[in-house]
From TrEMBL:
It comes from Sinomonas humi. It is found in: Cell membrane. Pathway: Phospholipid metabolism; phosphatidylinositol phosphate biosynthesis; Lipid metabolism. Mg(2+) 2 binds at D66, D87, D91. Contains a di-nuclear catalytic Mg(2+) center. Its EC number is 2.7.8.-. The lineage of its organism: Bacteria, Bacillati, Actinomycetota, Actinomycetes, Micrococcales. This is Phosphatidylinositol phosphate synthase. Homodimer. Its main location: membrane.
Length: 206
């Protein structure tokens, strides 16, 4: 839900910039790589140093490239599957970098191994959420269900991490990560159940 509403808003906001970049000869893929490099560097440099607020600010600016490259692809009528594959792959890089940066901080200067461990768990479960959908779709099934899709996970962790950088007690981030981990686990189960239902329906109609 958050994806649909947010993208509609950002499409209106970023269309002029997308047109300007296209006129300058910059391709959607270049924007994708720049955004991923920016998010990864921000998360793995600023978060481990304890700069949670400024890390979130930098990451947020680069995350907008995910919207921008999609707008550019539509404007240049790029309908090939390469763009979708590239976006999906680099999204995983960005997500993992964000949670890994938090884990490095809490295992290091943050002195909170429990929160660090939860960040690692979120990496593992987040990748499993994505894999479940990708594998289902590769087999011809639909698995775009679940309570914790990518946008919800990112917004939740970035908002709370940024607030912790401004002084919010870090236990709030611990519980946010705990909820995200639980929601991701539920999402995996929901996707498994969805695919199982489709396979049973196939067997029943055969």
């Amino acid at each position: 839900m958050l994806n649909r509403h947010a993208r509609a808003l950002f499409t209106r906001l970023f269309a002029p910039l997308a047109n300007a970049l296209i006129r300058a000869g910059i391709s959607p893929d270049v924007v994708t790589f720049i955004g991923t490099a920016g998010v990864t560097a921000s998360a793995l440099i600023l978060f481990p140093l304890g700069h949670l607020f400024w890390g979130v600010v930098a990451i947020t600016l680069f995350v907008f490239s995910d919207v921008l490259d999609g707008i550019m692809a539509r404007l240049v009528n790029r309908k090939g599957r390469w763009g979708g594959f590239l976006d999906s792959t680099l999204d995983r890089v960005q997500d993992d970098a964000i949670f890994l940066g938090l884990a490095l901080w809490f295992y290091g200067g943050g002195h909170d191994d429990g929160t660090g461990a939860l960040a690692v768990v979120c990496i593992l479960l987040g990748n499993l959420v994505s894999y479940a959908r990708a594998k289902a779709e590769s087999l011809g099934y639909e698995a775009n269900v679940g309570v914790a899709e990518r946008a919800e996970r990112l917004v939740s962790v970035l908002v709370v991490a940024g607030l912790c950088g401004l002084g919010l007690p870090t236990p709030f981030l611990f519980w946010t990560l705990a909820v995200l981990a639980a929601a991701s686990a539920v999402t995996v189960v929901q996707r498994v159940v969805a695919v199982r239902s489709q396979t049973k329906a196939e067997s029943g109609s055969a």
